[in-house]
Amino acid sequence: MPRPAAAARTTHSNTAPPAAVEDIDTSFLESLLGYNARRAALAVIDRFLAGMEPYQLKPVEFSVLSLVAHNPGITSRQLCSTLGILPPNLVGMVNMLEKRELIARRPHPTDGRAMGLHLTPAGQKLVRDAEKTAATIEAGFASRLTPAELRTLIALLKKVYKAA
Amino acid sequence: MPRPAAAARTTHSNTAPPAAVEDIDTSFLESLLGYNARRAALAVIDRFLAGMEPYQLKPVEFSVLSLVAHNPGITSRQLCSTLGILPPNLVGMVNMLEKRELIARRPHPTDGRAMGLHLTPAGQKLVRDAEKTAATIEAGFASRLTPAELRTLIALLKKVYKAA
DNA sequence: TATTGTTATACTCTATAACTATA
DNA sequence: TATAGTTATAGAGTATAACAATA
Hints:
- The structure is a homodimer.
- Chain A is built from 7 helices and 3 strands, in the order αααβααββαα.
- Chain A is mainly alpha-helical.
- The first copy, chain A, has helices spanning 27-30, 33-51, 59-70, 76-83, 87-99, 121-140, 147-161; strands at 74-75, 103-107, 115-119.
- Helix content of chain A is 55%, strand content 7%.
């Protein structure tokens, strides 16, 4: 974001070390997959965060609810290994979602230690609406990417993190 | 990561609600750009973190050193806006890199408030080696992605986060 | 008046150790 | 003995407010 050409006093002084930097060279970083993946993820998540504001859901909370919706009876342990979060960090989230009466813990049918997670009717409605919003956000990126590019991008991303 | 087919007792009970989940359906989440971008970024950064261990550099510290290397005299403010980090959070990092004698603060040639950042000889050597390692890590992904796919992926990621 | 660098501080996210009850 | 869920806690990472020196 530095202005294009102010203070032209410090131009082409090829030998003097104490020169000011005007245009920042980011070419090396931009050649790295990690740098670009992180920047893109942050940009998309930022948009997602804004879109989920009416539902008071952060990205991970949305992921949890969506997984419970499509996998009624899923356990905490399964959520953790699927989403890559640690059990102690899930507990508070599940408590909060239960207090909001979006999900309910029920005893697991075969494992007395585990609890199966289920959506309440209110949770089902919220997830339906939130997933619709997520799809809309997704479509919003079609302004920068064609549908084909979006498909390609997602396919390549999967190739990167699957079989890690 | 649940085992494929243990406890076959709880199979095809199509009507009973309290059933155990065996294979987790993640298809909706996997259709979302944000989910895939985050997972991919985490996977790559994980690999990067391991590769940078001998240099004792975290991804952001590597980014800072690399930017200083290619832009000698760059200011803290410029680093912050380029990398999307906040000034208070950069201070400690620069202090630490200075204490490790990898960078040096010198007075800015035209702005008395600012400090220009420069690499020490030790810093230059470290960055050269670390960038070589970064390129190697990058090449390591060629096992999952062809060089053409990697180029396409990076180009599409740029499209996503530029013009955000 | 605005900006650079800085301190202090708070809030979130992520990680580790240890306990309980079931398997 | 191992695993699911939980508690407590520690450590990163990220955020805002406010100040001194300079523009």
